[in-house]
């Protein structure tokens, strides 16, 4: 048991060091050797946990998904916020800001790396759908939401939000965003089957 | 004027030959030389039109988008089909079957090539949104659809359909599909603001 735990600790040390290096030096500019130096381990130890630098980046991306899901879970705990707003705020809180780590974000969004983007998206959808199921089912029970397919509705909202606002798939101009966000919230209201205007508080945040 | 036209004809010859080769031999197994032989041109002529084999593949993907959009436009012409069904059938008709060209589809869906998938998606969204705007605006005018943001509604429907059913982003099992398709059609009804059950004809196509 002890060894397993130590192994997990070691793996985490590598991830933390690599993440810091990717952020400060850039992903391309960081070598496996740089990581070894910071963690103070032998090459063999590194390759026991990861087969390549790219695999480290993939593990970091899964960490980012996990961190986002936990932020979302925290937001959902605050029962003082009306349910539907809480759900949308949880989705927003989930979005990785890549705290200061533009390097990782950039790496993920590079054309060569849409593979990593896809990895992020799949992991995020899997992790976040159950997180949102609880509040959505609560909304249905309280007669605030009306839908036949709650899971699929959540999947669609997460997917649309990600593709439109994190992935820039439409290449909208900055000035388009207020309208696009409102349209998105309007579609969310419809899919959840809320009263019209239930998301007005959020919509107003994005001006006229 | 004549030269421009001849250039376009030559470019098209290269595309047709390359597409046939990619389909019959596979993309990886096809070299620029193979293409030169079929079209019977010099290397310099090829590189006048394309900078690489990959650029040819990109041009083929744009062709696939164009062909899909034309199929959709044709479907929309058949006024005997009720409007909302016609719109959904146009979206389905647009989906590339890659007529026999599993090779191109495979190439596009390879993890290394999510870049091509993104290229396809962006081009498809740009090309198809205006195609669907006309019938959707007609539906609004005829009081069949009710929505505040028609363009964004079309964008969302196209994006969801593509990501869920062409891209396999959720990695659903075969047996999940009937439910997922119904849930999708149900969300489409809500976003378009049709009468409930307006898409029942289509839904019934996907069994119970």
From TrEMBL, chains A, B:
Q: Which residues, as ranges, make up the DNA-binding region of this protein? A: 31-50
Q: Name one Pfam family in it.
A: TetR_N
Locate the HTH tetR-type domain: which residues? 8-68
Q: Which InterPro entries match?
A: DNA-bd_HTH_TetR-type_CS, Homeodomain-like_sf, HTH-type_Tx_Regulator, HTH_TetR, TetR/AcrR_C
- Name the keywords, alphabetized: DNA-binding, Transcription, Transcription regulation
Cite the GO molecular-function annotations of the record.
DNA binding
Lineage at the top is: Bacteria, Bacillati, Bacillota, Tissierellia, Sedimentibacter
What is the source species? Sedimentibacter saalensis
Give the GO terms filed under biological process for this record.
negative regulation of DNA-templated transcription
Question: Where on the tree of life does the source sit, at the highest rank?
Answer: Bacteria
| Record-given protein name | TetR family transcriptional regulator
């Amino acid at each position: 048991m002890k060894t397993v735990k130590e192994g997990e600790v070691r793996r985490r040390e590598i991830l933390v060091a690599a993440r810091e290096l990717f952020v400060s030096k850039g992903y391309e500019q960081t070598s496996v050797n740089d990581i070894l130096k910071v963690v103070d381990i032998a090459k063999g130890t590194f390759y026991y946990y990861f087969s390549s630098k790219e695999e480290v980046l993939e593990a970091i991306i899964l960490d980012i998904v996990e961190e986002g899901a936990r932020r979302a879970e925290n937001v959902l705990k605050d029962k003082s916020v009306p349910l539907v707003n809480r759900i949308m705020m949880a989705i927003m809180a989930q979005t990785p800001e890549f705290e200061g780590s533009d390097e990782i974000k950039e790496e993920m969004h590079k054309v060569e790396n849409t593979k990593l983007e896809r990895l992020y998206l799949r992991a995020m959808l899997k992790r976040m759908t159950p997180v949102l199921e609880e509040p959505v089912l609560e909304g249905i029970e309280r007669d605030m939401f009306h839908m036949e397919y709650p899971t699929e509705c959540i999947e669609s909202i997460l997917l649309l939000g990600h593709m439109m606002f994190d992935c820039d798939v439409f290449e909208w101009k900055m000035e388009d965003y207020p309208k696009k966000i409102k349209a998105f919230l309007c579609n969310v209201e419809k899919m959840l089957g809320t009263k019209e205007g239930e998301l007005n508080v959020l919509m107003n945040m994005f001006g006229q």
